[in-house]
């Protein structure tokens, strides 16, 4: 149940897109979007159609011009029902398994993996996963693929595929890159056991957790507002550089790249305005 303040926040959003799997809303004056998985009957599973729909929506979000009414700087990813996401639809996987459709099986995992990679590598908006309960297998992968995670105390994260003979190899990619303790990540993969929001916070997997679901929306929105107060162009520029440098091993190469990025950043219009505003002791007025 939402508290009064979150109910008011929700009413301010205009629905941009909606189907049986998700709805996307934008709060125009805050430049914050909310993407909600809304197929609780199927535990918000990442079915073939769900992945297709979400992939198209992420690309549409990325394509929005700064001047567009539907442009957002920050995207909150959340879900309806008692489960954040149960991961892949095992009924679909079994059907492909029964048909020995090996190429289709690979495509199923590849399309999902491509969507996860797109969120971090190509989507300029900052994404925040708002996790209220179970994030399982590819559902855990989806949360970990977001730039930030806020969870309630009732949330849990798991990659239990090993328990049914299917090692969570693709969810493991996002999991390993989200946790400070890689041995803990490996333990999750080989035991299939879940970890609580508190454990996830201790291992650097999530940014913060709150005591109850009533505060979850409020705290997630507060974080989104803080981020969205900055230049969207600068945020997108910085996000792309952040993930690119993570994959570089040579420290000298990393600093060369980062120095070049900062020099380019200085030429961004909002950066010119920001530095000018600082020297003139006034608030910056970012256009993007």
UniProtKB/TrEMBL annotation:
One of its GO terms (cellular component) is mitochondrion. Its main location: mitochondrion. Keywords: Fatty acid metabolism, Lipid metabolism, Mitochondrion, Transit peptide. It is found in: Mitochondrion. GO terms for biological process: fatty acid metabolic process. Signal peptide: none annotated. GO terms for molecular function: hydro-lyase activity. May play a role in fatty acid biosynthesis and insulin sensitivity. This is Enoyl-CoA hydratase domain-containing protein 3, mitochondrial.
């Amino acid at each position: 149940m939402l508290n009064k303040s979150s109910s008011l926040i929700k009413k301010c959003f205009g629905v941009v897109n909606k189907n049986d799997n998700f709805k996307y809303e934008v709060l125009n004056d805050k430049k914050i979007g909310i993407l909600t998985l809304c197929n609780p009957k199927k535990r918000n599973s990442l079915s073939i159609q769900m992945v297709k729909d979400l992939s198209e929506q992420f690309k549409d979000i990325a394509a929005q011009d700064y001047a567009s009414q539907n442009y957002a700087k920050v995207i909150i990813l959340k879900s309806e029902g008692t489960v954040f996401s149960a991961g892949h639809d095992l009924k679909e996987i079994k059907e492909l398994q029964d048909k020995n459709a090996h190429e289709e099986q690979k495509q199923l995992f590849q399309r999902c993996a491509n969507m996860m990679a797109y969120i971090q590598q190509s989507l300029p908006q900052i994404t925040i996963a708002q996790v209220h309960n179970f994030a399982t297998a590819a559902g855990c992968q989806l949360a970990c693929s977001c730039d930030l995670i806020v969870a309630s105390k009732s949330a849990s994260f798991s990659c239990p595929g090993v328990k049914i003979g299917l090692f969570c190899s693709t969810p493991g990619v996002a999991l390993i890159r989200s946790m400070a303790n890689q041995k803990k990540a490996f333990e999750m993969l080989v035991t299939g056991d879940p970890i609580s929001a508190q454990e996830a916070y201790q291992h650097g997997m999530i940014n913060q957790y709150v005591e109850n679901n009533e505060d979850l929306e409020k705290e997630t929105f507060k974080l989104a507002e803080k981020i969205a107060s900055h230049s969207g162009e600068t945020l997108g520029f910085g996000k792309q550089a952040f993930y690119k440098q993570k994959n570089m091993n040579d420290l000298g190469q990393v600093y060369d790249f980062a120095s070049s990025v900062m020099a380019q950043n200085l030429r961004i219009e909002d950066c010119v305005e920001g530095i000018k505003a600082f020297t003139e002791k006034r608030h910056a007025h970012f256009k993007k």
